[in-house]
């Protein structure tokens, strides 16, 4: 065969071999167990995927690692160890506003930010129409493994790592007040220093009877007055119970604000297929002791199936979301003030 015929074939084979080598190298370096090498950008790390919050609390989940990823953003002019925030997304998955608003704010405050993606690595686009695709316990686990990972970074102060979440991720913030959830992953004293929950679903409050051991992290709740997805009043009720039992909770309700009011692009949208438990009787779920209650009356359900039957009857579809740029700016200022105090930051 003439050289001009076989040379392209050889080059193609060499090129394919190089691509294969690059792929093997990339996959070999993807999953990190510590950040001693000081990476930035997208970082792959291991979490787990509990099928329920009971599994997480009792460590009955499958211990097979679930590779996920997050993106690490560091402030400019990094000097010494800095505080950090883990960012947990909602049912729509990671959003551009997580970076445009919240990463920007935290970096300006001299803090690192780690945006965790719980959906993409698991092949999930969003869970708005079907929340059963991923139990929220997995979002809890992802935040805890992110905390564990960031604690190994020499650029980050392991005692000043907080968490902020939106909708589903806001539920993570509420769960992280309980030591039982923290111990679902942690074997040592590693814990979040501060928690911020934006419009979490408060139809069910994970709590304990008698009052639970707490992690000690203060909690801020940012709620929309017009939220018909995760109504503000339910979170106010939950905050009352938490405060009664010793949890520090700072509640902000923003006038005229809908779900996702902190979005950076002006919009309003109705989602006819999205499910909500806004009309359900508010419950308190004690997975530590397998006990289930109506939050307002203290009446105890016969068991988990009885409570779930209630929810099947009352869960409905149809929610509104929309940005409120004015109230989002107010929320930014409130988060900044809350974290400045909780983290012991110098005002900027």
TrEMBL record:
Domain (Dienelactone hydrolase) ranges: 70-274
Entry-linked Gene3D superfamilies: alpha/beta hydrolase (3.40.50.1820)
Keyword annotations of the record: Hydrolase
Domain of life: Bacteria
InterPro entries with a match to the protein in the record: AB_hydrolase_fold, Dienelactn_hydro, FrsA_esterase
Record-linked Pfam families: DLH (PF01738)
Name of this chain's protein: Dienelactone hydrolase domain-containing protein
Organism encoding this protein: Ralstonia psammae
């Amino acid at each position: 065969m003439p050289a001009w015929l076989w040379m392209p074939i050889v080059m193609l084979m060499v090129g394919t071999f190089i691509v294969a080598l690059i792929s093997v190298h990339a996959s070999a370096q993807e999953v990190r167990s510590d950040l001693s090498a000081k990476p930035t950008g997208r970082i792959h790390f291991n979490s787990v995927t509990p099928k329920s919050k009971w599994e997480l609390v009792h460590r009955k989940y499958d211990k097979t690692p679930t590779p996920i990823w997050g993106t690490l953003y560091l402030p400019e002019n990094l000097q010494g160890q800095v505080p950090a925030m883990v960012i947990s997304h909602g049912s729509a998955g990671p959003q551009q506003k997580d970076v445009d608003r919240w990463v920007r704010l935290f970096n300006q405050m001299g803090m690192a930010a780690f945006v965790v993606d719980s959906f993409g690595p698991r092949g999930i686009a969003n869970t708005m129409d079907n929340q059963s695709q991923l139990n929220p316990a997995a979002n809890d686990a992802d935040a805890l493994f992110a905390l564990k990972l960031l604690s190994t970074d020499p650029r980050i102060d392991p005692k000043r790592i907080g968490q902020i979440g939106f909708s589903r991720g806001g539920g993570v913030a509420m769960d992280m007040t309980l030591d039982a959830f923290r111990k679902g992953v942690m074997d040592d004293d590693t814990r979040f220093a501060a928690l911020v929950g934006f419009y979490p679903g408060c139809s069910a409050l994970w709590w304990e009877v008698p009052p639970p051991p707490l992690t000690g992290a203060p909690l801020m709740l940012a709620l929309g007055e017009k939220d018909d997805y995760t109504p503000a009043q339910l979170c106010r009720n939950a905050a009352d119970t938490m405060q009664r039992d010793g949890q520090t909770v700072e509640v902000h309700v923003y006038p005229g604000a809908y779900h996702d009011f902190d979005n950076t692009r002006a919009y309003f949208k109705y989602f006819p297929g999205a499910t909500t438990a806004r009309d359900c009787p508010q419950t308190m779920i004690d997975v530590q002791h397998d006990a289930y209650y109506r939050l307002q009356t203290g009446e105890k359900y016969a068991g988990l199936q009885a409570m779930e039957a209630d929810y099947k009857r009352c869960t409905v579809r149809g929610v509104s979301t929309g940005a409120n740029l004015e109230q989002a700016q107010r929320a930014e200022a409130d988060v900044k003030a809350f974290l400045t105090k909780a983290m012991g930051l110098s005002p900027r």
